[in-house]
Design a protein that fits this description.
The complex is a heterodimer of chains A (219) and B (188).
Chain A (H helix, E strand, L loop, with lengths): L1 H11 L5 H17 L5 E7 L7 H10 L4 E4 L3 E6 L2 E2 L13 E2 L7 H18 L14 E6 L5 H12 L23 E2 L4 E2 L1 E4 L2 E4 L7 E4 L5
Parallel strand pairs in A: 1-11, 2-6, 6-11
Antiparallel strand pairs in A: 2-3, 3-4, 3-5, 7-8, 9-10
Helix pairs in contact in A: 4-5
Chain B lengths: L6 H26 L5 H17 L18 E2 L9 E5 L3 E4 L2 E7 L2 E2 L14 H19 L8 E6 L5 H13 L4 E8 L3
Parallel strand pairs in B: 1-7, 2-6, 6-7
Antiparallel strand pairs in B: 2-3, 3-4, 4-5
The chains are: A alpha/beta (219), B alpha/beta (188).
């Protein structure tokens, strides 16, 4: 009886939804205009700095690997304190490691570069003796020529940051993770950059050279 | 009206009467019943929540336009942090959405540079960034967020590196020492 009374009372007072409908209809076009449907992210870069304790740094620099990647109109050059770091037999020109294809930095060129950088990172220069600090393992100097497009720089940054998806090498000792970069080797997938998200294993960005210093190359 | 109708005519009249009655009933019912907008309200609320979620999640708002400002795509998953944004479009350099200097064919006019056409120092950009640095430092002094010298560079994908280097150099002179490049995420 009481329940019936309550129901009757509830049914009698119909909620007037029109004002709130008006408000929502006004809000939706405004939000549609302001909404960003693309997700914007960032890549951290560094620029060369002048230091007061230069002499000490110079000493350290001499011992460091000093890996640098030069982007020119012809393609990529890779250098370290030991000289050119090109893959063996990939180019007739001893210095030009990865030439452009049809005048472009194609996906294939960048993929080859990525695999070679992984070889340098995880195999050739795996030992701690080449680095003055744990951060130095992830450091590289990128030297693009003045005419190189921003888009190509970002694609190159992606190629040298991300560990190739088919990389099978075991984890590197003393590697340090960074924001947006996982350094997790997943043994169940025998691959890099997997992490648990809501009980599911999801591929994450696993990085190698993420401390990139930008310098200006000469044309 | 004839006194005796044929059965067909009688049937037709009967049908017409029935239709009229149904129409009258429906009209009466419609008048009694208000418009049911609950389901529409549900849908609109869901849309509103989705739009509110996508609104204002990024600290800077970059409007992309073909040939003027298209950000390159990247696999980077790092989110933007609050910082002073410098946008380098095909025709302008903007600091916090305010145009400071014009760009033509990927170059800043030599008159806007302190050291001439080969120089790196862009005067109007330096002034605008110095002003931002001053403002942020005064906010820090009054107990606000600490000034860290962070800058977000959002550049058009066809911008030449020389122009970016000039922007980075000028920002460095104006006490902005940490840089991040804005990109469109292709991975969550």
């Amino acid at each position: 009886m009481r329940k019936k009374k309550i129901r009757e009372e509830f049914e009698a007072g119909d909620l007037n939804l029109l004002p709130i409908m008006n408000l929502i209809c006004l809000l939706i076009p405004f939000l549609l205009m302001a909404a960003q449907f693309i997700k914007i992210g960032v890549i951290l870069v560094e620029t060369p700095r002048l230091s007061r304790v230069r002499s000490q740094k110079d000493k350290k620099k001499k011992q460091a690997l000093n890996l640098s990647l030069v982007m020119t109109d012809k393609g990529f050059y890779i250098k370290s304190r030991f000289g050119s770091e090109c893959p063996e037999g990939i180019s007739e020109d001893a210095k030009l490691c990865f030439p452009k294809r049809e005048g472009k930095y194609t996906d294939r060129v960048l993929k080859e570069l990525q695999h070679h950088m992984w070889f340098l990172y995880a195999s050739k220069y795996k030992s701690d003796e080449y680095y003055t600090s744990p951060e130095a393992r992830h450091s590289l100097t990128l030297i693009p020529e003045p005419t190189v497009k921003y888009e190509d720089i970002v694609r190159t940054l992606d190629a040298i940051r991300e560990i190739p998806s088919d990389a099978r090498n075991p984890p590197v000792k003393h590697a340090i993770p960074s924001s947006g970069c996982a350094l997790k080797y997943d043994r169940t997938h025998s691959s890099w950059g997997f992490k648990e998200r809501g009980g599911v294993s999801v591929r994450d960005l696993a990085c190698m050279y993420y401390r990139v210093t930008l310098a200006l190359g000469s044309s | 009206m004839p006194e005796q109708m044929s059965p067909e005519l009688e049937y037709w009249f009967e049908k017409k009467k029935q239709k009229k009655w149904i129409k009258r009933q429906l009209r009466r019912k419609a008048e009694d019943m208000p418009l049911k907008i609950t389901s529409l309200m549900d849908a609109l609320t869901i849309i509103l929540i989705f739009l509110l979620k996508s609104y204002g999640s990024d600290p800077i708002n970059i409007t992309q336009k073909e040939g003027e400002m298209i950000l390159p795509k990247s696999v980077s998953t790092t989110n933007m942090a609050d910082a002073v944004d410098i946008q380098v479009t095909a025709s302008t350099i903007l600091v916090r959405n305010k145009a400071v200097v014009n760009v033509k064919n990927g170059r800043v006019d030599a008159n806007a540079k302190r050291d001439g056409p080969d120089g790196f120092f862009i005067d109007p950009l330096f002034k605008a960034l110095k002003e931002q640095a001053k403002r942020l430092k005064s906010t820090e002094k009054s107990g606000g967020k600490k000034f860290t010298g962070d800058a977000i560079i959002a550049a058009h994908n066809a911008a030449p590196y020389r122009l970016l280097a000039e922007v980075l150099y000028t920002a460095n002179q104006a006490e902005f020492k940490t840089y991040t490049f804005a990109v469109v995420k292709i991975r969550e």
